[in-house]
Design goal:
By secondary structure, the chain is an all-alpha fold. Helix content is 64%, strand content 0%. It is globular. The chain starts with a helix and ends with a helix.
Length: 126
């Protein structure tokens, strides 16, 4: 039930993005070579830090908050896009948790340097 509600909420946000002033809200890895301005990067970092703190389960709140505080300020645009795609994917919080602690293999699309950095971060903190 909760998965369907979350999906419908995300879908309705994406469908009505033009009403909210959101220009392009794609969570997929686009590989876009666009060079955003510093203010756009800061805005993206701020959004990702907030989304890292407000996860569905406490375990992910702790993991992603400490990870974001440590690494997001040094990430370039491509790395921020990969992290965005990871935490805003269609997969649920328990899948993200399993991938970050290494108990379950991640799908190929998320098996990136960002996920490896996240796994190392978790291992060092435990």
């Amino acid at each position: 039930m909760f998965k369907n509600t979350a999906y419908l909420y995300r879908y309705s946000l994406m469908r009505n993005a033009h009403l909210l002033g959101i220009k392009n809200r794609s969570y997929a890895q686009t590989g876009d070579s666009k060079n955003p301005s510093d203010s756009e990067l800061d805005l993206m970092r701020s959004r990702l830090i907030y989304q890292s703190r407000k996860r569905g389960i406490l375990e992910n709140c702790i993991i992603f908050t400490t990870f974001a505080d440590k690494y997001l300020k040094t990430f370039n645009f491509e790395q921020l896009q990969k992290y965005d795609a990871l935490i805003n994917s269609k997969f649920d919080e328990w899948d993200l948790y399993a991938w970050s602690i290494g108990s379950k293999p991640a799908p190929q699309e998320f098996n990136t340097d960002i996920l490896e950095l996240l796994k190392n971060h978790v291992l060092k903190r435990s």
